[in-house]
Amino acid sequence: MDYINAFWVGGLICALAQILLEKTKMMPGRIMVLLVCLGALINFFGWYDPLAEYAGAGVTVPLLGFGHNLMKGVKESVDENGFMGLFMGGFQAAAVGSSAALIFGYLASLIFKPKMKKS
After folding, report:
1. Rounded to two decimals, what is the model's pTM?
2. Once rounded to an integer, what is the mean pLDDT over residues 44-57?
């Protein structure tokens, strides 16, 4: 049942993002930022952990999960460092994932030698 819940919740998130892409004039970058902010907002209200327990990877893998990680890092850092934690927490929480994406993306570009599309 865990797989089914992850599939339908993650699919619903992706379908809503696709609807926003096709039915509005929002650019993909703005929709991505909207999803990250939505994940942070859901975390702020305390709804993310029960949702993640129910849907598993269906909510942790999409951009909602990135927003959750940022907000979680900010909360922890504010508890430890006070006001300065607002500026430190997000960087500390997201550093590993962002670094891995950059490093693996660079390594993939070295291996597969991408070329620009000709229009």
Report:
1. 0.75
2. 92
